[in-house]
Prior knowledge:
Layout: H1 12-16, E1 21-25, H2 33-42, E2 47-51, H3 57-67, E3 72-76, H4 82-90, E4 94-96, H5 102-111, E5 115-116, E6 118-119, H6 122-130, E7 135-138, H7 141-144, H8 146-154, E8 161-162, H9 173-177, E9 185-187, H10 193-197, H11 201-212
Parallel strand pairs: 1-2, 1-9, 2-3, 3-4, 4-5, 6-7, 7-8
The protein binds 3-phosphoglyceric acid.
Amino acid sequence: MTTITMKQPVDIRQILQLSPVIPVIAIEEMAHAVPLARALVAGGICVLEVTLRTEHGLSAIRAISQQVPGAIVGVGTLTKPEEFTAASDAGAVFGVSPGLTPALIEAARQTRLPLLPGVMTPSEVMTAREAGFHTLKLFPAMQAGGVGMLNAIAGPMPDVTFCPTGGISQENAAQFLACKNVVCVGGSWLTPKAAVLAGDWERIKALAMAASSLVSRL
Length: 218
Ligand code: 3PG
């Protein structure tokens, strides 16, 4: 990994700055994709991470990109290089990975897909920075040490910003967003499984409205 010198083609931070909260979405039924995205956008949350954790991931990215005006759709749970091209072809304009490997760095360079790579330790932050990534996903954020970890990293590495994800909720999101190195937070709390399965789009919209009122320091 130390031999890789690629620079990010587009700054992912510009995309993340458009929303204080990025919902982490797993589509269980294809019919949910478009109404769910519409509800989030109607509630003021426009940057959406649709994960590849379910079989509908790519189809959902395509449908939302084509049918939901205002949605900025990214692909989440990128763990294999071949997924970059497939997601990009489906309409994803950014990517999120739980970690970072040399193969993912090369795939991001080749597809020019702005990537938010995952890190959990100071050494991983330094390795990602050497590869040209200055905005990173702290994952899993709570297990990594939460706000305390982010503040500790800000000392030696003040030029790196984060989107912490994992264990974040409406209740603790403001504490994370108050950190001087947090551009936005990610989480699944905007899309509770029960509400999605019930087609309760008003509930999703209300959760999005509450989240969109949060503010980042950056
Ligand atoms: C992620 O993939 O980023 C996390 O699993 C989301 O974590 P959460 O469900 O705790 O919000």
